[in-house]
């Protein structure tokens, strides 16, 4: 149940950011849900491989290259999904930063007091 709620919150964040950022576009809420699922899968499967392959440059840049890796993941998702457009790597970078920030706010709602 929490997984579905998290995916819906991620889709909501994608829709909100597509309205705010002119370089990012999402056609429908269903497309946003697909974007949330594909981003989750890419972060799980592709991102660790990219992090390992780019470890030297990540160390030299003190971890800042991970922002570029996140932008690349978003551009890959934009190429895989019809109805999700990101115009440049700069918009992908801004989208990545704002998506992380917005997800942390939305997911803080799901935290349980233990």
Automatic annotation (TrEMBL):
InterPro entries: Phage_holin_4_2. The keyword Transmembrane helix applies. Signal peptide: none annotated. The chain crosses the membrane at residues 28-46, 53-77, 89-110. The keyword Signal does not apply. Pfam families: Phage_holin_4_2 (PF04020). Keywords: Membrane, Transmembrane, Transmembrane helix. This is Membrane protein.
């Amino acid at each position: 149940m929490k997984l579905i709620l998290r995916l819906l919150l991620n889709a909501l964040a994608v829709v909100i950011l597509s309205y705010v950022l002119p370089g990012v576009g999402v056609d429908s809420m269903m497309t946003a849900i697909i974007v949330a699922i594909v981003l989750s899968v890419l972060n799980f499967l592709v991102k660790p491989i990219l992090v390992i392959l780019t470890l030297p440059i990540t160390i030299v840049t003190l971890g800042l290259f991970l922002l570029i890796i996140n932008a690349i993941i978003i551009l890959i998702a934009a190429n895989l999904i019809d109805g999700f457009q990101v115009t440049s790597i700069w918009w992908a970078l801004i989208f990545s930063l704002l998506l992380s920030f917005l997800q942390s706010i939305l997911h803080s709602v799901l935290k349980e007091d233990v």
